[in-house]
C-alpha cells in the first residue's frame, strides 16, 4: 500500500507536466487557427498627408497579376471593374520550410471557378503580385507571417509595405525590401506612403437554403 502511494506521488509531476503540455498545445492550436481562415486585407496608414488619408482604410484587391488598393474615385466609387478582393490565408509553400518564421500566402483570384494563387514580391520591381507556383517561385515567396497581437501581415520578419501611386486614383502595393524607400526601384516623381496590412475576417453571409 505504501509502495503504491509512493509510486503515485512520484508519478504526479510527470502527469501534471503532460497535462500542462496538452493544455499549452491546445492553446497554441486555437491561437494558430486564424492562420487558415480566409481573410480580407485592408491597409492602415498613420500618415496625415493627403496621400495617407487617401489610402487609409482601403481594401486590397487583385487585378492583372498585381495587388492594388481599392481607393474610391469619381469614376469608380466602389473600385475598378474587374477588381477581386483579397481573400486568403497562410499555407505552406511546396518544398519550403521556414519553421517558425512563417509560411506561404495565398488568395483566391476568382469565385467562379474558385482559384487560388500564391502571393509574392517581384524580385526586380518589388511589386506585390500573385501567380501560380511556376510564376512565383523565382521571386520572394516568403516567409509570410503576422504580428502576434494585431495580426498585421509581415514578410521576411518585418513590415516594409508601401503604397505607390501609379496613376490618378491607382495605388499599387510594394514591399520595400531594401528599406530605402524604393529609391532605386520607383521614380522619385511617384507618391509613396508606408502602410500596414491588416487581416480582417470575412463577413459571414446568410446561408443559402438547401435544395430539397
UniProtKB/TrEMBL annotation:
Superkingdom, taxonomy of origin: Eukaryota
Signal peptide: 1-21
UniProt keywords, alphabetically: Signal
Protein name, UniProt field: Uncharacterized protein
Organism: Rhizodiscina lignyota
